[in-house]
Specification:
The chain is mainly α. The protein has one domain (about 5-235). α2 (about 25-50) runs antiparallel to α3, α3 runs parallel beside α8 (about 130-160) and α8 packs parallel to α12. It contains 12 helices and no strands. The longest helix is centred in the middle third of the chain and has 27 residues, at about 130-160.
Length: about 240
């Protein structure tokens, strides 16, 4: 079996990334995302008169719960529904290369969406004394969190031909990970530490405080790899 190569992943990445901007999807999603974040960020800034990115890094993970399922729901489901997936797999390309190409395209779209928000950090730096450390690590945390959510979204999209079903499944899986450290008071004490460790927001919060711990990086890398593996296995089911 041939190995995974960028020669195969690259064209899939470019095709998917262009497809976002060849339709209104990317523009609508990006505008809605920036509008929501911008409104809450500026409202909070003028309300409390504090030069801080804390509200931004608290709000974006909440918006991700809806934003990322919206940009991933079509990635595999649409290919299945239109029959283009079978056409794609007739070429000398591995299923894992299809998954990785689509993952990188969605991750690139996420990075493009976050890029204009750097203006918020620049504005905060001009208005007050802003510590750049937590800002840099906060963006790293958002990219890591987004990568995991995208991988989960692709897995959900690989399970069905219906984009709405893919959105719902992705949303439920993501919000379950997000809420794990929010319901610790309702679980037995013996399971509390495990639930907290499994929570993605717990690890993101650690990074957003300006501390990059190997345990947090290992958590994101493991969850990302596992989700991409599940997506690949799900895609391969059609051959069974």
């Amino acid at each position: 079996m041939p190995g995974v190569t960028m020669q195969n992943i690259g064209p899939i990445f470019r095709r998917e990334f262009r497809s976002y901007f060849n339709s209104p999807v990317a523009y609508v999603v990006i505008i809605v995302f920036l509008s929501i974040i911008g409104w809450f960020f500026t409202s909070n800034m003028f309300l409390f008169n504090v030069a801080s990115m804390r509200v931004f890094f608290e709000l974006v993970p909440l918006v991700f719960l809806f934003f990322i399922p919206a940009i991933t729901m079509r990635l595999i489901a649409e290919e299945k529904k239109t029959g283009t997936l079978e056409l794609l797999t007739t070429k000398p390309v591995l299923d894992v290369e299809i998954i990785l190409g689509k993952f990188l395209a969605a991750w690139a779209l996420l990075a493009v969406t976050l890029l204009p928000t750097l203006l918020y950090a620049l504005t905060m730096g001009l208005l007050g004394s802003l510590d750049p450390g937590p800002v840099i690590t906060g963006y790293i945390g958002l990219l890591l969190m987004g990568a995991v959510y995208i991988a989960i979204g692709i897995f959900a999209s690989s399970l069905t031909e219906n984009q709405i079903v893919a959105f719902i499944v992705s949303f439920l899986l993501i919000i379950a990970l997000f809420l794990m450290d929010k319901v610790l008071m309702y679980v037995p004490e013996a399971f509390a530490s495990t639930m907290e460790f499994l929570s993605i927001d717990y690890h993101f919060s650690n990074i957003a405080r300006g501390v990059i711990d190997s345990r947090d990086i290992l958590y994101f890398a493991s969850l990302l790899g596992f989700s991409l593996y599940l997506a690949t296995v799900s895609l391969e089911r059609r051959k069974w």
